[in-house]
Write a structure and sequence with these properties.
This protein is an alpha+beta fold and 96 residues long. The protein has one helix spanning 48-61; strands spanning 4-7, 10-18, 25-29, 36-39, 68-72, 78-83. It is 15% helix and 34% strand.
Length: 96
């Protein structure tokens, strides 16, 4: 899978984000396997979509939102996130 990689204890995810969805959810890998699809209820206005994405991912991986960093794609639907030392893995991710 190329939509995730480990950087030491930190997990980096490549995501394709759909905003204004009916509910927040992980959908699955895109057909090419380069991104993992995520749906977020929040609109992409004034950073609300990015904040909602960080909160959703933080809750799913069992970390504080401050431990989820947007490292790429701030104004795009394709984003890269870094999760600092996640204690739980809700996605099909293998530890190194």
């Amino acid at each position: 899978m190329s939509w995730y990689r480990w950087n030491g204890e930190d997990l980096e995810l490549s995501l394709r984000v759909q905003v204004r969805a009916p509910r927040d959810a992980f959908v699955g890998p895109d057909p090419g396997g380069e991104y993992y699809r995520v749906r977020i209820k929040a609109p992409p206005v004034d950073g609300k979509g990015n904040q909602a994405l960080r909160r959703f991912v933080a809750d799913a991986f069992g970390v504080a939102p401050s431990r989820v960093t947007l490292i790429g794609g701030e104004h795009a639907r394709y984003k890269r996130l870094r999760i600092e030392a996640p204690p739980q893995l809700p996605l099909p991710v293998e530890r190194p």
